[in-house]
Amino acid sequence: MLFEVEISTRREFEVIDIAHLIEQKIRESKIKEGLAVIFTQHTTTALFINENENGLLEDVKGFLQTLVPKGKGYKHDRIDRNAHSHLRSILLNPSLAIPIKDGTLLLGTWQSVIFVELDGPRRRRVFIKLCEC
User: Fold this and answer.
1) Which of 95, 96, 105, 97 is nearest to 31 (CA)?
2) For 58-112, what is each residue's pLDDT tens digit?
3) Is the Cβ–Cβ distance between 119 and 14 less than 8 Å?
4) For the chain, N or C: smaller number of CB within 10 Å?
């Protein structure tokens, strides 16, 4: 089963916990054992698994801003001034694969699925492929 979820972001850089959206689709599918593949098809968004804690998420933002500062004279900025967003996305992932057990994501106690907007605000699409196996 393939599901599409729309996410509307409000800021240039934003982190959004989407684990509950994936869990909802698992419930709808009635899959008990399998695999969830989550994919964002935008080149200025990303996904990661980690703790959904405000301080940590602020640290992620600061980390990416330090590693890839905005307006550093990147060649792509001649087109639309968002090269930093593309470069930051390269450091993260466009997709994740997470096992499903007993009808739920097999995440650790503190783990969550985080969607990262790197060039917002925009309307984004995330695809969730659920496979029973």
Assistant:
1) 105
2) 999 999 999 999 999 999 999 999 999 999 999 999 999 999 999 999 999 999 9
3) no
4) C
Domain count, the chain: 1
DSSP output for 64-130: HHHHS-TTS--TTHHHHS-HHHHHHHHHSBSEEEEEEETTEE---TT-EEEEEESS-S-EEEEEEEE
Beta-bridge mates of residue 47: 93, 115
CA within 13 Å, CB half, 108: 6
For the record, the structure tokens of 31 come out as: 């899959």
For residue 73, give the CATH number of its domain. 2.60.120.460
Task: Note the pTM of the prediction, 2 decimals.
Answer: 0.95
Taking residue 10's Cβ as centre, other Cβ atoms within 10 Å add up to 10
Report pLDDT digits (tens) over 17-34. Answer: 999 999 999 999 999 999
